[in-house]
Every structure is written in structure tokens, then in C-alpha cells.
Design brief:
single chain; alpha+beta; Phosphorylase Kinase, domain 1; D-amino Acid Aminotransferase, Chain A, domain 1; seven-stranded antiparallel sheet; five-stranded antiparallel sheet
Length: 296
């Protein structure tokens, strides 16, 4: 099969003109950097977790590209990648990522703390603490095919994605509906869905399809509800790995290099103990998100 795209952690092959094969590797990336360490079972857990959510969408009658999943491989329906899509185009991948946030966490907290984002626009009267629930879900859009993900406003999103304003509103409504499904499912197993990203395509008649992957430990952030209710935040997603690189000072050096336009420092490998912890996290979280057990 022809290799179409090699992403940071996923390889995409052409099965034929109508289908693609996703191969989920055991690579792991943070801050747009591929870590030179493999995480055992990571690819299989991501594939099967995403397949679990696509099957839920099918039950709810929500259009998506999923066909089948086996091991670390997923077969999906194919959409075109086109330059400068227009409002009349059909059957294409929307070149944007759609993010919904429900708690103050991750890059949102970094932006608030640095003053790049005003907490009042989120509905807070004072600076919120890390982990506080947002008064309203926060919806934002970033680029997909640029060197680094860049936040865009609705006007720019319409231009990049070939979208009408009402279609962006439809996308937002659809994502909030999907997130409700996800929250209802994972709360049965003591999880909080903190935030996550989704990718979409325009099908025939400009019908919205959910594509790529979502609801995994890579695309979404999860916390343990019991610990959260006690006042503790236990990271149960790739954020656990991001925090490691913050703690050792790598992220600060990377951020400074990017801000100054300097050569970026190479990301160091994870120590063996961290690799073991991260692998266990992915396997355990597959079980907590889906209610199923990975055969290893």
C-alpha cells in the first residue's frame, strides 16, 4: 500500500481510492516533538479506544469515517485533502482542529497565567486556579497542516476550511453533543473528561463527518473524579508526559527557542521507569475509558 502520510505517531496508507489504513505506532510526541522512546502497547490502545468511540457514534447515528479495527490498525473511509477548500466543495478533510475545554488546564492555564488570555472573557471575576470548571464550555479552532498548531478566529477558520458561519455553529453543536456522550460514558468508571480535540470532514451534500481519532489519551485530557473531588488533580492522559518535560526544564527551553527563533533543543528520551509508567497508563486508561480489558 502507498504511504500517504507519516504523522508524529500514526502512519496513513491508501488501501484504494475510497479507503485508508491507519497504523498506530508506539511513538509518542509532546509539544510537536517526537520523543525518542517507544511506549509498549500505546498504538493498540489508541486504535481500540478510538474505535470504541466511533462505534458509539454509529449507535447515535452520527456520521463518521470508521470501517473496522484490528490490533493497531484501523480502516476508514477516505476524504480528499485539497488546497484552499471553498464553500461549494464536498468530500474533503477540513484542514482544522476543533477543541473544546471544560476546565482550566493545559495551554489554557498557561495563557491565562502569562496574561495572553483574559480570564474575564471566560466568565471568571478573578484569576481561576488550575483545575477549576469553566462557567461555559470553551470552543476554539486551530490550524492542522502548519508547522505548529495556531489558534484562529471564526473568520479565519471559515477562510481556511471553506466553511460557512452556520456550518461552524453546526460543528460546535455536534462536538458538544459528542462530548456529552463521552462524559456520560466515562463517569461510570470514575473519569472526568477535561478537554479534547476533534477533526472533521465534509461529505456529500456538505454533511459533517467525524474523522481521524478522538477520545483517546493523546487527543483528550482525563482526570480521576474521586481524586478531583478530594482536591487533587491526577493526570490520566499524555499530559502526564508533558508535565515530566516541564519538570525537567525542557519545555521552558523549547518555548524560549521558539519565541526567539533559535534552533530548537532536541527532546531527550524518557527514562526506563517513565516508559513503564506511561505504558501502564495507556493500558489502564483503555480499560477505564471503554470498560474493556486489553489482552497483553
Amino acid at each position: 500500500m502507498e504511504l500517504i502520510r507519516r504523522g508524529k505517531v500514526k502512519e496513513v496508507y491508501a488501501v484504494d481510492e475510497e479507503r485508508l489504513l491507519f497504523v498506530f505506532t508506539d511513538k509518542i510526541s509532546v509539544f510537536d516533538k517526537i520523543i525518542p522512546s517507544k511506549i509498549p502497547y500505546k498504538g493498540e490502545t489508541l486504535c481500540k479506544t478510538s474505535a470504541f468511540w466511533f462505534k458509539k457514534l454509529n449507535e447515535m447515528g452520527i456520521k463518521n469515517h470508521y470501517i473496522s479495527c484490528k490490533g493497531n490498525k484501523m480502516e476508514v473511509n477516505r476524504f480528499k485533502i485539497i488546497d484552499n477548500p471553498k464553500e461549494k466543495d464536498e468530500n474533503y478533510l477540513i484542514p482544522l482542529e476543533f477543541i473544546t475545554r471544560y476546565y482550566v488546564a493545559g495551554s489554557m492555564y498557561d495563557r491565562l497565567k502569562s496574561g495572553k488570555m483574559d480570564y474575564r472573557e471566560l466568565g471568571f471575576s478573578t484569576m481561576p486556579k488550575y483545575g477549576e470548571p469553566l462557567p461555559e464550555p470553551y470552543f476554539e479552532i486551530t490550524t492542522k497542516f502548519e508547522a505548529y498548531d495556531r489558534k484562529v478566529n471564526f473568520k479565519e477558520a471559515r477562510e481556511i476550511g471553506g466553511l460557512r458561519q452556520e456550518e461552524i455553529e453546526d460543528i460546535k453543536e455536534l462536538i458538544l453533543k459528542i462530548d456529552e456522550i463521552m462524559e456520560d460514558e466515562v463517569k461510570k468508571r470514575g473519569l472526568i473528561h477535561v478537554d479534547g480535540k476533534k477533526e472533521l470532514a465534509m461529505g456529500e451534500g456538505r454533511e459533517i463527518f467525524v474523522v481521524d481519532t478522538f477520545g483517546t489519551m493523546d487527543e483528550d485530557r482525563w482526570w480521576d473524579k474521586e481524586e478531583y473531588d478530594r482536591g487533587n488533580i491526577v493526570q490520566l492522559s499524555k499530559e502526564f508526559v508533558r508535565q515530566y518535560y516541564r519538570d525537567i526544564g525542557y519545555y521552558q527551553k523549547l518555548k524560549e527557542a521558539r519565541e526567539k527563533g533559535l534552533e530548537e533543543p532536541e527532546i531527550p528520551p524518557l527514562p526506563l521507569e517513565m516508559i513503564r509508567k506511561v505504558s501502564k497508563l495507556y493500558v489502564d486508561m483503555y480499560g477505564r475509558i471503554t470498560g474493556k480489558k486489553l489482552k497483553i
